[in-house]
Specification:
Layout: H1 2-8, H2 21-25, E1 44-45, E2 56-64, E3 72-77, E4 86-89, E5 110-115, E6 121-124, E7 138-141, E8 153-160, E9 174-180, E10 202-203, E11 215-216, H3 220-240, H4 246-263, H5 279-304
Antiparallel strand pairs: 1-4, 2-3, 3-7, 4-5, 5-8, 6-7, 8-9, 10-11
Helix pairs in contact: 3-4, 3-5, 4-5
Length: about 300
């Protein structure tokens, strides 16, 4: 039914702005269908959310967050307006709309978005949106003559619905994420996958000149060795479960289970995580490391005897 309906009605209508960009591009006389497919630095673009009903990212300088900080609220609305347009700016703050050759946006590139109407940068912060219990709120702040690390967004391409080469950003057909830069100098949060490798140590106090500096970082050789033991241990179970090493299996499975119990659940938690959440699991990992050393030493002694 819907296939027949949309096959017969191919002309652009007044309500097509409510439909996805892929649908609009198939309509006759559509503005979307005649726009350039390639996206490059200096392009004037609109940003559409992939969430149903969120529409295009919209900023109006008359809509500010309460508190007097002059941050303009960035929301999603249906339909194109003059407040939907953004300039794609490179990290060196130049529009580069006259460069030759043209510099296209690639997967992993860091970009900035300058709002055409207000001259403010698209940013995100630690605060949650007022109407949602998850995510971070987006806003527009600053001006076109100054910038900060809060303006940086990393392009993460998810899929491409055209035969064009992968890894480049295209209009309409590319599904992508805009990821706030996770490696700026105020990095405190960290993902659970990074904890066993000690990738992101954490400061525990402010960097003010009058405060005592405290930096949480582990002993790297012990940290990595304990991680190696925890990762290799499941492969050892079959060998240890038989023969003279069975007693080692019976004792060590409690240590590995303690590590897994205190570490793996963080992957399912929808909350902010920090490296100190790994300390309990690290306690069991270090005990397992000591146990492995003892096991290898006894096994070696048995071979000698």
């Amino acid at each position: 039914m819907f296939y027949v309906h949309f096959s017969l009605l191919r002309n652009r209508g007044t309500g097509d702005y409510k439909m996805p960009s892929q649908f609009q591009a198939l309509q006759r006389n559509s503005v979307v269908a005649h726009q350039p497919h390639d996206v490059a630095y200096g392009s004037l673009i609109t940003l559409r959310s992939n969430l149903p009903g969120f529409g295009l990212v919209y900023v109006n300088e008359t809509f500010n967050f309460p508190g007097g900080d002059q941050e303009c609220i960035a929301v999603g609305i249906g339909g194109k307006q003059k407040h939907n347009w953004w300039n794609l700016v490179s990290t060196n703050l130049t529009l580069e709309n006259s460069t030759s050759p043209v510099k296209h946006i690639m997967d992993g590139d860091f970009v900035r978005f300058l709002h055409e109407g207000t001259g403010r940068w698209l940013r995100t912060g630690v605060h949650k949106p007022y109407h949602l219990g998850w995510g971070r709120r987006m806003f527009a702040d600053g001006n076109d003559t100054s910038s900060s690390l809060l303006d940086l967004w990393r392009v993460q391409i998810e899929s491409e619905d055209s035969p064009m080469p992968k890894g480049q950003l295209y209009a309409v057909t590319t599904s992508f994420r805009l990821v706030a830069d996770p490696d700026h100098h105020k990095h405190i949060e960290s993902d659970p996958w990074s904890w066993p490798f000690l990738l992101y140590p954490m400061r525990l106090v402010s960097w003010a000149d009058d405060s005592i500096k405290c930096y949480e970082v582990g002993n790297l050789p012990l940290w990595w060795a304990s991680t190696l033991c925890c990762l290799v241990y499941p492969l050892q179970m079959g060998y240890w479960h038989s023969g003279e090493l069975k007693k080692f299996w019976d004792a060590s499975k409690l240590l590995w289970g303690g590590w897994a119990l205190h570490y793996l659940p963080f992957f399912a938690m929808a909350r902010v995580t920090y490296i100190h959440h790994y300390l309990l699991a690290l306690y069991f990992a270090l005990l397992l490391l000591a146990f492995e050393i003892q096991c290898v030493a006894r096994w070696y002694m048995l071979k000698l005897l």
